[in-house]
Fold:
Amino acid sequence: MSRVTKSMTPKLAQRIVEEVKRNDALLSEVAKKFGVSTKTVYQLVRQSEQQGGRASTLRTEIDKLTMQLNYLMRELKLIQD
Structure:
């Protein structure tokens, strides 16, 4: 990660990523607009996508565990009755 991305505020990084994704803008155009390198914009977008992938994986795991918990609670209720 470059020195710029380390010292950049999370809010600015989010704005840069949103600019790329929302407007389907070229990385170089966004880099010029915000006064950072194209590499920095690329790194921010890539990092954002990786975090999104992790969130999706966690959501899937939570859903599976919730279903399993519901199943076990029904089984427990049957045993107790």
